[in-house]
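Hi R.,

Here's the chain you asked about this morning:
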Amino acid sequence: MAGGVDGVEEIDYDELGVAEMMAEVVTRITEFEQVDEPVDGEYLAAGLLAVGYGESADYLEAFVRMFADRAEELATPGALAFLRCVTSLTAEPVRTVAREAADRLAAAGVVPPAWVPELDEPLTAGEFVRWPDTDGTGATLFGSFARAGRTDGFLIFVDDENCGAAYDLAPFVGEGLIESRRLTDEQEPADEEPVTAGEFRWQVQAALDARMVHDRGARDAGVEWEEPEEDDAIPHEVAEVVARARLRILPVAAKPLPIHVHPEFEAGLV
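And here is the predicted structure, written out as tokens:
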């Protein structure tokens, strides 16, 4: 297999019916060599990992195995960067799939871009605050994180009139993160409320879970929800990959997450 690592068996993507997707994977992997910062690489990888949005862990794992196999076939610095980003963004068992593939490329002598080692630095929690809507219809939450001297985070808008689902998820990096927090504090009529890391994780995860149930039900029913994002915004399912990865470093709250079900979705009534 030309350009691959010894021992990696070539896959017939046409036979599996995913040739077009895998061509996009190759294009995306090539872009990793133009990335300058780890968080940009993570969002680039999240664009591929979003294939698992609303699906089971087994579904995502199957695709990541194909992505990892293709990356090993390419055996380029961008391929190694992609695998390291997938490792930083995913939970087990997907994480191990990507990590082991990355380790094999590194052992074969592939050298990653200069920013990749920063992914191994500790990711730490920053500030977490909440602005409740004065009319009781929801809230805006802000969370920040730091790694290797760089900061990133997100704002999430929660709609309590829609099962507490995330209405919008807006990621920010560096100075943009600081400015987003300042502007939100200026524009929100309610005073900010500090939130513990564990409570922030609980509230955001509950909102993301509710949004995912709604999106999955709408998709199955052929319904398109109204999207609040601007045309140039990062799609929700992509931003969610990174947001959930950030949440995993935070403490787990003692209270269980709400069980979010919609019988009308299950019955095909929507």
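One quick note: DSSP finds ten helices and five strands in the chain.

Cheers,
M.
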